[in-house]
Write a structure and sequence with these properties.
The complex is a heterodimer of chains A (about 425) and B (about 140). Chain A is built from 17 helices and 11 strands. Chain A is of the alpha/beta class. The chains are: A alpha/beta (about 425), B alpha+beta (about 140). The complex binds flavin mononucleotide and iron/sulfur cluster (SF4).
């Protein structure tokens, strides 16, 4: 498969009208496709939750908000292959019985919005969108809706609020969007890559698609690789490639820049726990760690992380974990919508404490204080942004406590002007 | 005071409104604010009030949205807004050095605008790996 470049897709007439919407949903269930937006929820199952008992219109929303630090795969897919997404939207909307669908794209991607609108125009003029698509009697209108710079609008209920022309404040669930979403109508929100994957699934059949990958991680996954590697970029992998191969093979990241040693890796976007080198390449059982939902999360947060959105950030031995953790905390503080006190206050507090430690004003109680704050945020908020802010802090302390202690103990010795580690740090890290 | 947007902007606004059901005009708010900000450079109170009038909503509904989203400027900004991402992946690749270089060259701090009104320097509110964003408000 080559979802960034394929142009040979399926004639829509072979599906619309020939297969029933439920049969299309069944194919997606059989394929084992799981959400590519972060949570990895089985897509066919999610679709089956859509409330079809009312006569209200139903909506499909494509989540192209892509704002997680380290994640830039949807951007490439939409830039290079907009028609694949449009075709996926048509097939998915057909399966769900939607006659109107929206692509919610982050405002910073305005130039991609133009690409999509042009492609949508082409699809309308060729009869793939609009009334009575290709003579099948199925109608679909597709629009693109820009956001305006708010990470929280990637959360599905905040996305819906934003599409309704409001602030991006997540809603309390239940009701879930599948029952009451956009304008109180049944709504499904799926990531760009999830929707694009529906095309190859229907082309080859769900059962064939399920043969790609390993176990419950079927198909291919786009990985955004960044950080201190030789070849940053977006790679489509068959799920099951080992982490070691992904980092060191010339087909993918091409190894660590300047032949440095690797210190750590955040495998699934800034929200997921960081993994130190000794846990990155091997699971706790000693088996090689693979790029799959299961293998990356093996051992829970004690020894594992998550595949998340596939934002793969690699840190070499010169990077400072405290600084990175402070950086992420600053991001979550800035992006908290402010509705829940633990998230609004906790993210700001963590940022301040981390700033103090990083800039040499920390004391030995601060590390335990940080641990305490993150624990009080996790699980106590309306939406998962609170967890997403807490997990990176918890993981950094769990695996790199010595770096925090070093900062507190030798505040003036930690950094040179370029924020690069002093050599003596290395002995302490290993 | 009666404020009028250009014909091009109004045509674009009319097109955007058709994307939503007739009783859901408010949904066009975010895209419409992008259109008028492009024309006016920033979102002053009269601009926001006019948008409220066009979409048949209360002015406060526009203000609360304009202040929530980081891409909307509710204060005057330079003709060119330079935004540099400084989240994790960009930071470890030297974003801070880029920011201080631009800051030195322009003689402004992050969040400030040059005296000639040409450039505003900002940190990218949300991340964008390895990316410098300049977008132009052609006034
Ligand atoms: C704070 C936050 C930000 C999110 N950002 C995104 C995003 O940018 N893109 C995305 O597809 N999903 C994002 N999600 C996940 C969505 O809420 C939702 O689970 C996803 O769009 C479902 O699509 P999928 O099942 O196809 O993965 C975010 C979730 C949270 C809590
Ligand atoms: S957890 Fe944070 S972002 Fe989510 S609703 Fe609460 S305050 Fe808003």
């Amino acid at each position: 498969m080559d979802i960034l470049n394929t142009v040979d897709t399926i004639p829509l007439e072979n599906i619309l009208g020939k297969k029933s919407p439920d049969e299309v949903t069944e194919e997606v269930k059989t394929s084992g496709l799981r959400g590519r937006g972060g949570a990895g929820f089985p897509s066919g199952l999610k679709w089956s939750f859509l409330d079809k008992s009312t006569d209200k219109p139903r909506y499909l929303l494509c989540n192209a908000d892509e704002s997680e630090p380290g994640t830039f795969k949807d951007r490439l897919l939409m830039e290079k292959n907009p028609h694949l997404l449009i075709e996926g939207m048509i097939l998915s909307s057909y399966a769900l019985g939607c006659e109107t669908a929206y692509i919610y794209i982050r405002g910073e991607y305005m130039f991609i919005l133009r690409i999509l609108e042009k492609a949508i125009q082409e699809a309308y003029s060729k009869g793939f969108l609009g009334k009575n698509i290709k003579g099948t009697g199925y109608n679909l209108d597709l629009y693109v809706h820009p956001g305006a710079g708010a990470y929280i609008c990637g959360e599905e209920t905040a996305l819906i609020e934003s599409l309704e022309g409001k602030r991006g404040n997540p809603r309390i669930k239940p009701p879930f969007p599948a029952v009451s979403g956009l304008w109180d109508c049944p709504t499904i929100v799926n990531n760009v890559e999830t929707i694009a994957a529906v095309v190859p699934i229907l082309k080859m059949g769900g059962a064939e698609y399920a043969k790609i990958g390993i176990g419950r991680s079927t198909g291919t996954k786009l990985i955004s690789a960044s950080g201190n590697i030789n070849k940053p970029g977006v790679y489509e992998i068959v799920m099951g490639v080992s982490v070691e191969e992904f980092i060191y093979s010339d087909e993918y990241c091409g190894g660590i820049k300047d032949s440095n040693d690797i210190k750590a890796c955040v495998p699934g976007g800034s929200s997921v726990p960081i993994l130190p080198k000794h846990l990155l390449f091997k699971e706790s059982t000693g088996e090689p760690r693979l790029m799959t939902y299961e293998s990356l999360s093996e051992g829970g947060f004690q020894t594992g992380s998550m595949l998340g959105s596939g934002g793969f950030i690699v840190y070499d031995e010169k990077q400072c974990i405290v600084r990175n953790t402070w950086n992420f905390a600053r991001f979550y503080h800035h992006e908290s919508c402010g509705q829940c006190s633990p998230c609004r206050e906790g993210t700001g507090w963590m940022e301040r404490v981390l700033h103090n430690i990083e800039y040499g004003h920390g004391n030995s109680d601060d590390i335990d204080l940080l641990w305490d704050i993150q624990r009080r945020i996790e699980g106590n908020t309306i939406c998962p942004l609170g967890d997403a802010a807490a997990w990176p802090v918890a993981a950094a302390i769990r695996h790199f406590r010595h770096e925090f202690e070093y900062h507190v103990k030798y505040p003036h010795r930690v950094m040179d002007a370029d924020h690069v580690y002093q050599p003596e740090m290395k002995t302490l890290v290993n | 005071m009666s404020l009028i947007f250009s014909q091009d902007s109004m045509a674009e606004i009319d097109r955007l409104i058709t994307h939503y059901p007739p009783n859901r005009k408010k949904s066009a708010l975010l895209p419409v604010l992008h259109v008028v900000q492009k024309e006016c450079g920033w979102l002053s109170v009269p601009v926001m009030d006019k948008v409220a009038e066009i979409l048949s909503i209360k002015p406060i509904e526009v203000y609360e949205v304009a202040t929530f989203y980081s891409m909307y400027h509710t204060e005057q900004v330079g003709k060119y807004v330079i935004e540099v991402c400084h989240t994790g992946p960009c930071m470890i690749c030297g974003a801070d050095k880029i920011i201080s270089y631009i800051s030195d060259k322009l003689g402004i701090k992050v969040g400030e605008t040059t005296k000639d009104g040409l450039f505003t320097l900002k940190n990218c509110g949300v991340s964008w790996s390895l990316w410098i964003r300049t977008y132009v408000s052609d006034r």
